[in-house]
Every structure is written in structure tokens, then in C-alpha cells.
């Protein structure tokens, strides 16, 4: 019965929500709102359980003096300080709202402690994003090269003053590649590859001015086209896949095939 009752509740709830979605009339029309209210109530209890689990996990680290126990102690102290300060703002301050403009919680804790910590976290996250972008954009194959080229166009097209800097960026890159091709050609004896490298270098040098003028005139439009056509098409494909995966997983849970939530 420990398994059958939760499975029956899950099946009945999921089936009624599907019926309410397609039959917006009484008594099914209001079922979705009722289930949403119950979801909010249950999520409140799950938050309490999550806080209890977090504090207990970190308290065990402090009690056993694990390697990172000072961080666990800082987390526990910060939690109770935040909770008690917010409770004081609700009970004793005139506004009875910790996020009111005159509340001490908002002025001294949220704006002076929480917001700077949040900014620090996102600033550190920028380095990880840059590292991941470097690994993804290394032009080792045609897909990575296209990704690198598209990302450069979008960043220059969306960043302030990027439109003005784009011709110079393209000119420097073309000049570097042209020098590379000329050096490679000088190291080779007469042959097709030597003349190909020379032709590529000359072509890059000749393309600096016309391509620079083109980027100066149409770079924002090119960036918008990349974001609205190829990027949006790929995004829609990913969202369709996510939606189909969510539907499949929901059906597995409703019919009782997926039971990992019972563990």
C-alpha cells in the first residue's frame, strides 16, 4: 500500500489535469486552479524540508570538523542572521515589511551585503563562461569555425561601439592570417600549395577594405539576422525536444512506469 496509494494519487491528479486542460467547463474548469493552490502549499513544505536538510548537512560537517567546516558554519550563521533580522523587520518595524524602502533589512542587509555578494558571484561566473566559450570556440573543425565567426559578429553587432570597431578587428585578423600564409608560402618550394598560400594572403589583404565597409554599414542587421533566423531556429528545435521529453516523462510518471520519486 505504501507504493499503490502514491501511484494512484499521481495517476488521478495527472489525468484530471489533462482533462481540465481540454475541458474548460465545470467541474473540470476550476481543477487547474485548485491543483495550483495545492502545489503552492506542498512546495512550501518542501522548502521547509530542504532548509532542514541543508542545515543538518552543514551542521554534521561542523560537528565532524570536515575540511570545509568553516564554510558550513558561516552558512548556518548567515541563515539564522538573515531569518532573525527579517523576522525583526516584520514584527517590530513600522512598515512590517522587510523589503520596504525604510526597512533596516533592505537598507543594511540586502543592499549592503546580499547584492555585493551576488555581484561577486556573477563576476566569478564570468570567468567560467569565458573559459567554456574558449573551449567551444576553438576553430578545429568547420562547426567550431562557424560558431566562432557567428559569435564574433553577434558580439560586435550588439556591443556599444562594436559597429565602429568591427572593420578594425576584421582588418587585424585578416592581416595576421595574410602574414601567416605568406610565411608558410616562403617555407615551401615551388608548387600548387605555395601559390595557393600566396593567393589566399593576397585575397585577405584585398578584402580588408570592402569587407570593412560592409561591416560598418550592415553589421547590426547581420547580427539581428543571426539571432532571428539561425539562432531562433536552433532554439525552437531545442525547445521542441525539451517539450517532447517533458511530455514523455510526464506520461511515464502518470502511468507509473517512472517511480524514482517514491524513493
3D structure, described in words:
The chain has 263 residues and is mostly helical. It folds into three domains: 1-65, no CATH class; 67-137, no CATH class; 141-228. It has eight helices and no strands. It has helices spanning 4-22, 31-64, 69-91, 104-137, 142-158, 162-186, 192-228, 230-254. Helix 5 runs antiparallel to helix 6 (162-186) and helix 7 crosses helix 8 (230-254). The mean pLDDT is 83.
Q: State the domain count.
A: 3
Number of helices: 8
The ordered string of helix (H) and strand (E) elements is: HHHHHHHH
Most strands sheet: none
As residue ranges, the low-confidence spans are none
Question: Which percent range fits the helix content?
Answer: over 70%
Q: How much of the sequence is in beta strands?
A: under 5%
Q: How large, in whole angstroms, is the Cα Rg?
A: 30 Å
Shape: extended
Number of strands: 0
Structural class: mainly alpha
Mean pLDDT: 83
Distance between the termini: 14 Å
Which terms summarize this structure?
3 domains, 81% helix, extended, mainly alpha, 263 residues
Question: What is this entry, summarized?
Answer:
The chain contains 8 helices and no strands. The chain is mainly alpha-helical. It is extended.
Q: What does the secondary structure layout of this molecule look like, with pairings?
A:
Layout: H1 4-22, H2 31-64, H3 69-91, H4 104-137, H5 142-158, H6 162-186, H7 192-228, H8 230-254
Helix pairs in contact: 2-3, 5-6, 5-7, 6-7, 7-8
Amino acid at each position: 500500500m505504501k507504493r499503490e496509494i502514491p501511484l494512484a494519487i499521481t495517476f488521478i491528479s495527472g489525468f484530471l489535469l489533462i482533462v481540465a486542460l481540454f475541458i474548460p467547463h465545470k467541474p473540470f474548469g476550476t481543477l487547474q486552479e485548485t491543483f495550483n493552490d495545492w502545489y503552492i502549499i506542498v512546495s512550501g513544505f518542501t522548502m521547509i524540508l530542504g532548509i532542514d536538510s541543508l542545515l543538518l548537512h552543514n551542521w554534521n560537517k561542523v560537528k565532524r570538523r570536515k575540511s570545509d567546516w568553516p564554510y558550513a558554519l558561516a552558512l548556518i550563521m548567515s541563515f539564522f542572521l538573515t531569518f532573525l533580522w527579517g523576522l525583526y523587520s516584520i514584527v517590530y518595524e513600522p512598515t512590517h515589511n522587510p523589503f520596504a524602502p525604510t526597512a533596516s533589512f533592505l537598507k543594511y542587509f540586502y543592499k549592503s551585503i546580499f547584492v555585493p555578494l551576488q555581484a561577486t558571484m556573477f563576476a566569478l561566473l564570468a570567468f567560467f563562461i569565458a573559459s567554456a566559450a574558449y573551449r567551444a570556440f576553438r576553430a578545429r573543425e568547420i562547426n567550431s569555425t562557424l560558431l566562432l565567426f557567428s559569435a564574433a559578429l553577434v558580439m560586435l553587432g550588439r556591443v556599444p561601439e562594436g559597429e565602429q570597431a568591427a572593420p578594425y578587428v576584421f582588418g587585424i585578423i585578416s592581416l595576421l592570417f595574410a602574414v601567416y600564409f605568406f610565411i608558410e608560402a616562403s617555407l615551401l618550394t615551388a608548387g600548387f600549395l605555395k601559390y595557393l598560400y600566396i593567393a589566399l594572403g593576397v585575397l585577405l589583404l584585398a578584402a580588408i577594405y570592402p569587407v570593412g565597409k560592409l561591416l560598418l554599414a550592415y553589421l547590426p542587421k547581420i547580427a539581428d539576422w543571426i539571432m532571428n533566423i539561425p539562432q531562433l531556429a536552433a532554439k525552437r528545435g531545442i525547445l521542441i525536444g525539451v517539450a517532447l521529453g517533458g511530455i514523455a516523462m510526464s506520461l511515464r510518471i502518470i502511468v507509473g512506469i517512472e517511480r524514482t520519486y517514491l524513493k
